[in-house]
Amino acid sequence: MAFIMRWLVTAIAAGVAVWLIPGIDIIGGTEAWVAIALFGLVLSLTNIIIKPILEVLSLPITCLTLGIFYLVINVAVIYIAAGITNGLFGVGIVVSGFFSALFASIVISIVSAIVNFFIGD
Asked: Is 22 helix (H, G, I), strand (E, B) or coil?
């Protein structure tokens, strides 16, 4: 049940990011909500599986930059999730550049924090 809630929160946050950030577009021939739901699922799984590995591997540079490199890790996770979604399902989002992904990671983090605050753990 906790993973389903995490998936829904991530999908909501990804939908807000797609709506707000001009460099992120939905691709595929299906409905927009299907693409966002699939991207939210893959992003949730990527956050659970790949992100901790990236955090451990980049720990020295993250400490050196006082945590700012953590934003680059979030951007990398968004690119990985978008690539997996587009490659496996043929739908999802396409990110046009680094700064679009950077702003999307910030929006996804803020919206996820707000939604998690209201729904609780």
From this structure: coil
Predicted local confidence at residue 22, as pLDDT: 92
Alpha helices in the chain (DSSP H): 2-20, 32-57, 59-64, 69-89, 98-119
Number of residues assigned to the chain:
121
Q: Report how far residue 80's alpha carbon sits from residue 115's, in angstroms, rounded to the nearest whole number.
A: 24
In the numeric block, which tokens belong to residue 49? 């599986």
CA distance 18 to 107: 10
Both tokens assigned to 98: 């680094």
| pTM of the model as a whole | 0.89
The residues of the chain scoring below 50 in pLDDT are none
Phi, psi of 66 (to 5 degrees): 60, 35
Which residue type occupies 115?
A: V
